[in-house]
Each structure stands twice: as structure tokens, then as C-alpha cells.
Design a protein that fits this description.
By secondary structure, this protein is mainly alpha-helical. It has helices spanning 3-42, 45-78, 81-114, 122-125, 128-150, 167-171, 174-204, 209-247, 249-255, 289-295, 317-343, 350-380, 393-396, 403-406, 409-432; strands at 156-158, 161-163, 267-269, 272-273, 280-281, 284-286, 385-387, 391-392. It has 15 helices and 8 strands. A two-stranded antiparallel sheet has the order 1-2. It has a two-stranded antiparallel ribbon with strand order 3-6. A hairpin with a 3-residue loop joins strand 7 and strand 8.
Length: 435
């Protein structure tokens, strides 16, 4: 492994770990807001205790997210200076604004956490609103930068120099809309399912009827909220895939493993390229399916990978990752439906109750895996470019840095952060929990 390959592995490892902390940092404020609001409306001490308990876990993940984000910022400036230099005139703006958004989130999170015993009711609840907005805007600004890297606009290249720069024209695009909407809804969905799983576990620990009723209320509503998010994501996913076919046809062809430019292109599940990488063989074929997916018309021409030099093809593993993701999406869609069906019978059939509990427990980790797969497809589908069509990965890399000598610090640090943070969170859930 050379320095470039090591650097790619390290940044992939870092982003993979960081997204877990980041998504809960975005989703937990909204989820806690809902629970505290319900506690006020219902005058429920049990729900208020749950909100207080989850606030401690949220604080833990925000702190760890800051540390992991700082490590990524160090990598970007030291290892990927070519990307920073090239993209600074445009993506420097959202990165700077993300700092202000996080400042709002951090300040009001401090107020919210420190005033549990000083304020009550809506006065305390309203302190969480800026936290929700700050966390959401942080995700928006970071995703704006990523969307620009996938579909760069807002400038002209003259003799290798970026000129006529219009940052907001380049940032506020349809690509950005789809990425932001898909990401935020995915983060909220994952948080809803994860908290439903935590509450299901807490129910098994026993306690008063009031406590069990409060926890069951959260499980039922968050499973419903999660299912609504799935429906929204299904619509967004279809629309974004059509946009991808037009705005990023090279990535679209790789995700769908489409080597030839065709109209009436079939949708192929499980196919593979022949030895010459000219035709797609095997798999389950749906006639006209890919053309219809691309633009709701069987006559739509779908551009194939062979229109691009072989050196510009993305990593074709994105096709397998996409197919795995679609299968897991199917399972995740069934979970809330099965839960609601089984829960209605739970009072009479204890076996169904346990099955329903396991379904809820699985929904959180499965959602995290889907978020990871989504980001992997997005990033690997842009390869071999750091900025699609303009800056290749090797150009973004700081060649003078000997990553092999010290870069292992980053994956080791992230593994430690992951183990310690989730170990602490699990111990909090297992031993303490809400009162």
C-alpha cells in the first residue's frame, strides 16, 4: 500500500466513524424536543425523566462528534491540501458557516443542559429550538460542500485556473437539495428508530406501569415517525435517482452497472460485466426498467460507462453496495409495519411481544448501516475524482506527506472514540436509564 492508498483508506475510515456521531448529533435534539413536549402536555414525570436521560447521551455524542470532526479537519488540511486549495473559493463558505452553526448549537446546548433544575415547561423546552436549528444547519452546510464536489458548478476553468466564480450559484443546486433532504431525513429516521430500540430495552428492565406506558408511547410514536421518514425517502430516492441520471450520468451508470448507452435499457439486478467489460451478463432483468427509472419513459437513452475512458470509471463495487442497500431498505420498511401488526396482539401473545421487541431493536442499527452505505455509494461513485470532472484524487492528495509513517493514528483514534463513547452510552442505558 502506497501513501495515496493509505490516505484514502484513512479518510474513508474517519468519515465512516464520524457520520455515526454526526447523525445522532443532528437527530437527538429533535427527538428529545418531542419527548419533553409530550411530557409537558401529559404532565408525565416519566417522559420528562426520559428526555433528561437522553440529553446526557446527546451531550456525549456531541462532544465525541467535535473531537472526530477536528480529526477530519486535520486530515483535510494536512493530507488533502490539494482539495482545500482547489475548492476553497466555493466550499470555503459553507465550511466557515458550519462553524457558526455549531457555535449556536453548542451555546444553547450548554444552556439547555445546565438549566434542567432552573427552568421548567415551555421555558426550558424552547432552549432546545436553537440546538435543533444549529445541528441541522451544520449538516446542511457540510452537505452543501459535498454536493458541490459531486456536481461542481458556479465557475469557469480557464487554463487550469478557476475564474468567474459565483459561490452560491455553485452551491445552491438541485444536487444539493436532494443530498440535504435525503441526509437530514435519514438522520432523523435513524434517531427515531434507535431511541425506540433504547425504550424497548428499558421496558424489559421492568418498573412501574406509568413508566412502561410512557416508554411504550415513545416506541409507538417513533416507529410511526420512522415509517413516515421511510415513505419520504422513497419519494426522494426516486426523484434523486432521476436527477443523478441527468447531472451525474457517469455515477448513475456505475451504480446501475450499465456499460452500454441504450434506449429501452433494462433494469438488471445481480448482473456482472463480461470479460471485456463491454456487456452486462446474467442477473434478473426488468425490460425497459432502467430507462423508465431514469426519466419515466422507456425511450429514454441511458448513457453507459463505455462513453468514458476506463481510467475515469468509478469503483464498480458501488453497484453491489447499492443492491445490498435496496434489499436492506426493503427489510427496514417491513419492520415498522410488522411491529404495529404484532404489537396489537402483544397483550395476548407474549411471543409476538418479544418478536416485536426484536424488530424494534434491529431497526436502529439497520438504519445506521443504511446511512453508511448511502455515503459510501456517494463517495465511491465520484471516484477517481475528488471534485467530479476537475480534480482527481491524486491531485487532491498532499504528495509530500508520508502517510504510511504516521497516518495510522487516525483509524486508531476513531476506533478508540467509537468503543469508548458507545461503551459509555451502553453502560448508561443498561445500568442507569431514566428514573
Amino acid at each position: 500500500m502506497n501513501d495515496l492508498s493509505a490516505a484514502r483508506a484513512f479518510i474513508g475510515d474517519s468519515l465512516g466513524f464520524h457520520i455515526i456521531f454526526a447523525l445522532f448529533g443532528v437527530g437527538l435534539p429533535l427527538a428529545i424536543f418531542c419527548i419533553e413536549w409530550w411530557s409537558i402536555r401529559r404532565k408525565s414525570a416519566e417522559l420528562l425523566s426520559l428526555a433528561h436521560f437522553l440529553t446526557r447521551i446527546m451531550s456525549l455524542f456531541v462532544i465525541v462528534g467535535v473531537v472526530s470532526g477536528t480529526l477530519i479537519a486535520i486530515q483535510m488540511s494536512v493530507i488533502w491540501s490539494g482539495l482545500v486549495d482547489f475548492g476553497a473559493p466555493i466550499i470555503g463558505i459553507p465550511f466557515a458557516l458550519e462553524g457558526y452553526a455549531f457555535l449556536i448549537e453548542a451555546v444553547f446546548l450548554g444552556f439547555y443542559v445546565s438549566t434542567w433544575k432552573r427552568y421548567a415547561g415551555y421555558h426550558h423546552l424552547l432552549l432546545l429550538v436553537p440546538v435543533i436549528l444549529g445541528a441541522g444547519m451544520s449538516a446542511v452546510f457540510i452537505t452543501l460542500a459535498n454536493a458541490w464536489m459531486n456536481n461542481p458548478q458556479g465557475f469557469e476553468m480557464v487554463n487550469g485556473v478557476m475564474t468567474n466564480i459565483h459561490p452560491w450559484k455553485g452551491l445552491l443546486t438541485a444536487t444539493a437539495f436532494f443530498e440535504i433532504a435525503h441526509s437530514l431525513i435519514s438522520y432523523y429516521m435513524t434517531t427515531f428508530f434507535a431511541i425506540a430500540g433504547v425504550c424497548t430495552f428499558l421496558i424489559t428492565k421492568g418498573g412501574s406501569q406509568q413508566r412502561a406506558r410512557a416508554l411504550r408511547l415513545v416506541v409507538n410514536r417513533f416507529m410511526l415517525f420512522g415509517f413516515v421518514c421511510i415513505i419520504l425517502l422513497a419519494g426522494l430516492g426516486h426523484a434523486s435517482m432521476q436527477h443523478l441520471a441527468q447531472a451525474e450520468p457517469r455515477k448513475f451508470a456505475a451504480i446501475q452497472m450499465q456499460p452500454e448507452t441504450l434506449d429501452h435499457a433494462p433494469y438488471v439486478i445481480g448482473g456482472h460485466l463480461d470479460s471485456n467489460e463491454e456487456h452486462l451478463e446474467g442477473g434478473l432483468r426488468i425490460p425497459n426498467g432502467l430507462s423508465i427509472l431514469a426519466d419515466n419513459d422507456a425511450d429514454t437513452v441511458v448513457r453507459g460507462l463505455r462513453e468514458y475512458p476506463r481510467a475515469d470509471w468509478p469503483l464498480l463495487i458501488v453497484n453491489r453496495l447499492f443492491e445490498v442497500k435496496m434489499v436492506l431498505v426493503g427489510f427496514l420498511t417491513l419492520i415498522p409495519l410488522l411491529y404495529l401488526a404484532l404489537y396489537r396482539r402483544a397483550q395476548k401473545m407474549s411471543l409476538d411481544s418479544r418478536i416485536a421487541g426484536w424488530l424494534v431493536l434491529c431497526s436502529g442499527p439497520l438504519s445506521v448501516l443504511l446511512v453508511e452505505l448511502g455515503w459510501m455509494i456517494t463517495e465511491l461513485g465520484r471516484q477517481p475524482y475528488a471534485v467530479a470532472g476537475y480534480l482527481r484524487v491524486e491531485q487532491a492528495f498532499t504528495a509530500s506527506v508520508s502517510v504510511m509513517e504516521w497516518g495510522f493514528i487516525f483509524p486508531v483514534a476513531f476506533v478508540l472514540l467509537f468503543v469508548v463513547s458507545f461503551g459509555v452510552a451502553f453502560q448508561m442505558i443498561r445500568k442507569e436509564g431514566p428514573l
